[in-house]
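quick one if you have a minute, typing this from the bus. below you get a single protein, a line of residues and a line of whole numbers that encode the local backbone shape. could you go over both lines and see whether the tokens make sense for that sequence. anything you notice is useful, everything is just below.
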Amino acid sequence: MSTDADASAVNYKQDRTVGQILVSVHLPNGFPEDFGRVIGGAFHQLRSAFDNLAYQLVLANGGTPTKQTSFPVLADCPNGQFAAMTNQRLAGMSKSARATIKRLQPFNEWPERPKDTTLWLIHELNNLDKHRIHHLACLWIATCNSTLYMKGATAADINSRVEYFASRGVAEHDAPLIDIRWDPALMAALPNDEMLMEIDRSADIAIRNPERASFLDPDGQPTEALPIAHFLDDALTYCETTVLPAFADEFK
């Protein structure tokens, strides 16, 4: 998008005759479709890494992996049924490795909301894209703020006022973000009407899928799309600080 001037994500429209600067979303050609496919590939690789781990856990225990060897990910599990449901997939692993895999399951990690755990999302987003329908990429706005600077005057001197629109979440083309207004007569009376506006915004590429109604945003609030940079950062941190240390003793 950075190489296409027409695809700039934000548009600024200034009209000094009425005293207005309008900042809006600018996606005239939609969001690049390739993003969804690239992100789907990342999910495939991340989910496959857990099955690679399962294979290595069998070898580390002196066993022989089979075609069924894999890392199960369950959102629910009837009491006492985990062993029966996963026996073939975990065959050849040590008892401690099996216990660790059970402990990491979404139904154990967050019983109230197992389908919002990091492990479940890795599993589900891989399956949705691979077996049902590709993820759709979109622009997701986290924050958008502005500051108005003037030489020899303040914003109050021109009766400046700012309206921030509810912008957190998916950003569609032409959606308003910030509307700055001032009194043009007061501005014209200033000895120096030079004005500078800075926009402080944070955005992310996000994915949405018809098979998943909502996700949780970085603040734990429901949102229709999942911010990818934030989620992948969480996912890699989860793997590095939770998953790998949990199995470290299996490979000594």
Observations:
- Residues 40-133+239-251 form one domain.
- The mean pLDDT is 89.
